[in-house]
Amino acid sequence: MEQLFYKYQATGNDFILIDNRLGGFPGNDSSHIANLCHRRFGIGADGLILLENDPGADFRMVYFNSDGRPGSMCGNGGRCITAFAKFLGIVGDTCRFVASDGLHEARISGESVSLRMADVGEIRHKKNYSFLNTGSPHHVQEVSGLEAYDVDREGKRLRYSLYGEPGSNINFVELQPDGVLHVRTYERGVEAETYSCGTGVTAAAIAMEAQGKHPEQPTRIRTRGGDLEVAFRKDAGAYTDIWLTGPARMVFKGTLS
Ligand SMILES: N[C@@H](CCC[C@H](N)C(=O)O)C(=O)O
Known about the structure:
- There is one protein chain.
- This protein has two domains: 3-117 and 247-256, Diaminopimelate Epimerase, Chain A, domain 1 (Roll), CATH 3.10.310; 123-245, Diaminopimelate Epimerase, Chain A, domain 1 (Roll), CATH 3.10.310.
- The longest helix has 13 residues, at 75-87.
- The chain has a 17-stranded mixed β-sheet that branches.
- A hairpin with a 2-residue loop joins strand 15 (226-235) and strand 16.
- By secondary structure, it is an alpha+beta fold.
- 18% of the residues lie in helices and 43% in strands.
- It is globular.
- The structure holds the ligand N[C@@H](CCC[C@H](N)C(=O)O)C(=O)O.
- Residues 13, 65, 71-72, 74-77, 136, 169, 187-189, 194, 197-200 line the site of the ligand N[C@@H](CCC[C@H](N)C(=O)O)C(=O)O.
């Protein structure tokens, strides 16, 4: 049977989406997934996402990084699958779905999708970086001259030297004079810089607020692939009601051979 696929992007973080409600997609075949995500031999994407049934929500999101292995939460992918679920007619302008880090709510307004992220409790602040989990693990480090910074080289070095095999995503941030937070991310599982990372910009906004460096709400973010916003509440040191907002759209569709 022919398998349809859809290509989506959210601020340049791009994904292959597959409606797997009837099952049949080989999610345990990591080399097949890696081949589909390959930018020369496949469709090309930062990750692959399966939309599946879930008894307690509108649907379930199953996320794989471009290396073919199961990933943790993907914020931009969560916004893409929300738009995909609407395209498939499963939901209207609001939905609830289950991902690897639990239940998420999302809202659609035109091409803009807002996704409620998991609450954040513990943040580890070190001398020149912070580490926190926004559904995926994130290292957040301020640098100057971010535009010209070698994100691939430094990201790869820190990912392995500080975090070993489980690894972490590595975000470099620089506050701009106009109050916008510029963020560039080296993504674990892609093992390269991506154009944008949703859980990463969420981590960056929270880590900067926690250090009193950027209390502006909502936080306006610039990534290589476009602009995002992160809004949250702070209750007794914990971050709740965290919303990530930005564009997400279908780019093309096709059939797997
Ligand atoms: N691009 C994603 C992050 C995906 C998860 C990550 N690569 C991992 O498994 O660590 C996002 O938008 O959050």
